Amino acid sequence: MPTPSTPSEVRLHTARHVLWVAEAALGRLRKTVPSGGLVDEGDGFVFLLENPNELEEIVAELTSAAAYGMAPVVGGRGRDLIEAVADARREGRQKLRGGPDRTPRMAAIATPAVFVPPSITGADARGRFLDDDSLTTLVYADGRLRPTGALGRERLFRMFSGQYGYAVYANRPVLEAADPHPRLIDADTSIVEAALTVANRDSESLFDDVLVTDAGGRVVGIVRVKDLLRALTSLGLDRVQQLNPLTGLPGGARTEQALAEIIDTAETLVVSRVDVADFKSFNERAGFTTGDRTIQALGHAVVSVARGRGVRFVGHLGGDDFIVAWNDEDEAIVGAIEVALELMTGMEPLGPLPDGVGNPELAVSTLVAGPGEIRDVATLANRLAALKEEVRRRGGAVHALARLDTISTPAWRPLDGAYVSVAGHVATVLGRQS
After folding, report:
1. DSSP 179
2. What residue segments make up the domains of the chain, in order of their start?
3. Which residue, among 295, 278, 260, 275, has the nearest Cα to 381 in the 3D structure?
């Protein structure tokens, strides 16, 4: 008499679809997580599904580039299932890495937003919160889902707990009690960069939910601060320690690893070192606090351009020294101008600099190497250092672009404020059209 099959064995034999979901993205599924998830090497879960409708329902919850992957099980052999799991995992992990700094995006951990009309009363809003313990924020938005306000659970309950609070607001719209300027973070922002932003909020709004928006300013989800902290924890201490504490970007060790992976592809290399011209003097004259904020502004500028162009990697070696691995030479030329423009814009909120101190200027050293011309990171670092020395000797806001045989005689392009203020806007427009 044959041994009865266990539920797991039955699921294995009947599975027709594989869904891989990163641990950091499980929050997006909320109550629709299917039963029977299998732990997958500690960073994700595999779901084996027979019903295609169930798969569609789950994937509908995982919008905005959340970290998931799916694949069909082509045949009925165990090998077919293994291959399907591998395909789904590969797709999901690619989304988990998401951006050029190789850390998860906010889209991966956002949960669906609950939208309410401006006319919702205090009693109705209170009822929404009481009906769903996991609901922490109600979102007001216009017809295009761009946020106009956010009402947090604690804000509403605190208001109702006061004298006459319920009597006043129960039967009238509570839009006036909502936060008209909730914290917005781009869906493609890394969770580390987002955490640094949240940490700089004032104490009263520190633990308010964050609204995650797409490139068009539309709300795609909500991230609670505790979910953000949980996602950071899931990165692992070793990975967090490899991130620069000032910008949240990969530091030296992870940058070296990423560049080694790019070199191994045996494709054309286009790598830039980006920093502030004569930063040491600027830092001493402007003050160390302004210096740190300038580095953060430069980091934001580099990441913003990198994110928009989908570059291969961005890292922060330390101080004002950043690394960008571009897709091609033309992108490096235009990208350097865009970074300079973003830095100029990013410095405006810092206010006026001390008398006699000019705005920081960008210096970029870009090396182009053909397939196989550079075989290891040490050689790449050595050649970039030599090119950066040429930039230092010349001084000022410039972009030096060279190949291995022209490091001592690179092509020079201006990056001063007068040039960038005109060329930067042109570059941005052209970038959007490409």
Report:
1. B
2. 7-97, 108-233, 245-433
3. 260
| Residue that the structure tokens 């891989």 belong to | 20
In the block, residue with structure tokens 């929404």: 128
pLDDT tens digits, one per residue of 253-307: 888 888 998 898 888 999 999 999 999 999 999 998 899 989 989 998 998 888 7
Assign 358 to helix, strand or coil: coil
Q: In this predicted model, what pLDDT tens digit does every residue of 73-117 receive, in sequence order?
A: 877 666 777 888 888 877 776 665 555 555 677 877 787 889 999
Whether the CB-CB separation of 20 and 40 falls below 8 Å is answered with yes
- In whole angstroms, give the CA distance from residue 189 to residue 193: 7
Q: Is CATH 3.10.580.10 what the domain over 108-233 is classified as, yes or no?
A: yes
**What is the biggest distance separating any 2 CA atoms in the chain, rounded to whole angstroms?**
92
Residue 115 phi, psi dihedral angles, 5° rounding: -95, 145
- CB burial of 26-56 (b: ≥16 within 10 Å; e: otherwise) equals bbbbeeebbeebeebeebbbbbbbeeeeebe
User: In terms of Cα–Cα distance, which of 28, 204, 220, 253 is closest to 115?
Assistant: 220
Check: pTM over 0.70? Answer yes or no: no
Mean pLDDT of 347-356: 87
Element (H, E) at 426: helix 417-433
Q: Rounded to the nearest 5 degrees, what angle is found at the Cα of 193, between the Cα atoms of 189 and 199?
A: 125
* Domain 245-433 CATH (choose: 3.30.70.270, 3.30.70.20, 2.102.10.10, 3.40.50.300): 3.30.70.270
